[in-house]
Amino acid sequence: MVLVDRGYRDGELAKHIIGRIRAEMGDGPPVRLMEVCGTHTVSIGRCGLRRAVPPNLFLLSGPGCPVCVTPGSYIDAAAELALSGVTVVTFGDMVRVPGSRTSIEDARAAGGKVVVASSVTAALDIARKKAGEVVFLAVGFETTAPTIAAAVLAAEREGLDNFSVLVSHKLVPPALRAILGDPECAVDGFILPGHVSTIIGTPPYRFLADEFGVPGTIAGFELIDVLVGLETLVRRVRRGEREIDNEYTRAVRPEGNPRAREAVGRVFEPADTAWRGIGVLPMSGLALSDKHAAFDAARKYSFDLSDYELPSGCMCGNVMRGLMRPAECPLFGKACTPQSPVGACMVSVEGACAVSHKYGEF
Amino acid sequence: MGGRLVELAHGGGGTMTAELIELVREYVGNPLLDRLEDAACIKLSGRVAFTTDSFVVSPLEFPGGDIGRLAVAGTVNDLAVAGAVPEFLSLSLVIEEGMTFNQLRRLLDSVKATAAEAGVVIACGDTKVVECGKADGIFITTSGVGRIPDGVTVSVHGAQPGDAVILSGEMGLHGVAVMAAREGLGFARSAVSDVAPLNRMLAPLAAKLGVHVMRDPTRGGCAAALHEIAAASGVSIILDEGALPIPGVVGGACSLLGTDPLEMPNEGKALVVLPESRSAEAVAILRSHQYGREARVIGSVTGKGRVPVALSTALGQRPVDAPRGELLPRIC
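Structure tokens for the assembled complex are given below, as produced in the milestone run.
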């Protein structure tokens, strides 16, 4: 495998870039930047960047963790399927998330069939054995949707009628629009998600600058990647420049990956989708097209996945909209901990609250 | 009996059970075991360390080892990090009906080779066969006893401020190798488990250098083991990020899967805590052994601080969490 050069983690270079960011920030008014990718959330937490940047530079975590924005009813549905004898195949980070009533982990402990996998191909392999119904939990942003689309197309080709996907795919640009459309919003710029951008490219972010006057920078995930992205973004904000920059050119092409988008387009269509803690956002997700309805677990098993409520007292929605830091939630570290989470942001390894707790940002 | 399968009757206590026991003896037999007494009679004197462990792993055979080697090395290492010289092991096999004799032979051969490498005698054993679906191929339990040399006082409670923390080699290889084999992760195919008996490498440390703590960072990886040491000793441990020996394949796999090398299991590594003044000597001793070539100081012990275990990075310190216990690959 190709490994990232250690130079992208160089501590001395990092300090040098932080020095330049500090100079750019000066004593001016605060700048609030939001990242909208769980991997960035982890990267910023793990590297301790919040403590390293100047105190007038605030780094917020947006709705970039797909697990965190998945509705409680979706988790309940998955648990119900597992307990009914269906083999539920899922990415690992979904297992512990509390639904409205239960979790997949609880269903597994009660004898439900749950298989943790790192790819949808594991679900196809199980379905090919023709030993009962298999449902894959299709969660994620533009990055994972192409692999799910490819799996649905493979299942169609092979006539796998025991395979379906429970879809809760989300799209990043509509979420950014919702955040900026909120009258309380105080985000000055976005660190744009590197992985998602490899698929969608740069044009879908133009509206940030053109309609809202907010700059955005696509960044990679290593320490130096994130810092270079921050520096560019801070400079744009400080100078009032409305631009979308790509600082992750070794992975992101301006046009993205048309082939992956074509596969998604053959299987999915944009749809209004519920974001847990935020609401139903127009055209912010993907639904299987009618042509592929046979592979839609929600239709096959008649589930309604339109709720977006949070557990009582949980402020994950405000955290993900950048209105509140994790530690400002009254439950944080008290009623809500990684060992005993209330909200999804504390469960997912990429959740803003879990990262904040893990890396001691309180 | 190459292509034959283990059947329930092999566990029924009759002639087929005798056949299974004979197979086990063919590999790990010795004068003590061959007497086939209900209990082995062994002579012990002085302080004795006694431990037990059960081994379940999927797949049973993985790059670098198998459950047979794991079952011997795991218990040998538990004795060795207690400062003991391992002497006797028990070997209990719970076999799922349907395992091939070919595979069982391979696993027993691995038990034999690892026991010989460690210099331990299989003193007693047991075999059971359970119905298909009631086990995952084979479960193995080994217990072990070892002699603690006079003057050796290694304990998880013994870490003191001013001590150095040494790791005997690169971290995370067992965890990544098994995960790659189980999940078919092509990108991590080059990961080879480090499973190995460490008693011969660790014996001189305990005997000569006044080591305070030794711990094998297995389940939960270094993070879990360091948390145990910090809690038991009432100290904090500060790791140096730049010193952590993380092989490329482990770093890469962890980045992709959203896991932490510090939480990945090891089966052939030891954490050694001893006064800083003796650390260079300890590293030299470890490096002279085939399983300790990459040994190095990875951190230090301080008085009890804000967090039990912290990582010192280029940009400051951050806490190292105690792992919850299940490594779950993330979405993207």
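The radius of gyration of chain A is 20 Å. Residues 293 and 299 of chain A are 7 Å apart (CA to CA). Further analysis is deferred to the final report.
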